[in-house]
Amino acid sequence: MKKWFILVCTSFLILLSLSACNQNKIQNLKLAEVTHSIFYAPLYVAMEEGFFKEEGLDVELTTTWGGDKTMTALLSDGADIALVGSETSIYVEAQGSKDPVINFAQLTQTDGTFLVSREKMDNFEWDQLEGRTFLGQRKGGMPQMVGEFVLKQNGIDPTNDLELIQNIDFANIPSAFASGNGDYVQLFEPTASIFEKEGTGYIVASFGTESGHVPYTTFMAKESFLKENDEAAKKFTAAIYKAQQWVEENEVSKIAQSIAPQFEDTEIELIETVVARYKEQGSFSTDPILEEEEWNNLQNIMDEAGELPTRIDYDTLVNTTYAKDVMKK
Fold first, then answer.
1. CATH, domain range 113-211
2. Which H helix or E strand runs over 67?
3. Which residues have a Cβ under 8 Å from the Cβ of 11 and sit 6 or more positions away?
């Protein structure tokens, strides 16, 4: 009887130990980001503040430098999750994908670019672009589509009212402007603020403020991955939501200090300037839900730019289940 009791107790302890190991098991996820930018501050907060680890996730981050390369990494299983503009999922779906790319958590909700003028202007008006040279972004990319949309919203025809230059590689646009090309340029941060600090150019308008809410960068994954990794996707979304709330609730200086390790070559004062600018204009989503109105606004912008292959229903490529579940808690 005594031996039997000892055997039962030993078996119970082994099962308990195995159960604890399973609960503490860390799941690895490969995340590809389209670029490495302060614009994605909540993501880096999730990493630096340990929110992914709290959810039992080890996230391996890779910068893939470009929407096409990011989507290629996702489709070829080089990444489990991609952080990229939602327009890329529409392009993939329009090509007849058998495994749709699903937007399941939103990170930024406005465009992240700014209009920079070579001359300092105290009272900028959009009609001042008429007859001038404008260095835009890559044709077909979200920044360029938003840029053209905003110009048209303000009565400027990008084709006829100014000289629009689009044939410069993304990485070379700032240097082209700095070397004397163009009267205006569309730039991301922190380059826009660096130019302003150096006197190379001056921020006169925000494309994010002008264009309204759009799913500018979202976390997405193949439908098959989400079905097979439902719990991991939910945990990932929970970590992002924690970070979004943390960014919303904390001061700019604290946010900058948190993400500073991600930008070792950038002065903390500049990080603060950029975080403040994006936070003030509401670029950081405060929750991971991609709203239907935002989805429709995105397709309207693509359509206006002549880049929308076909309209895709919201429910086809957007899944808010994880976001709504984690927000309930």
1. 3.40.190.10
2. helix 67-75
3. none
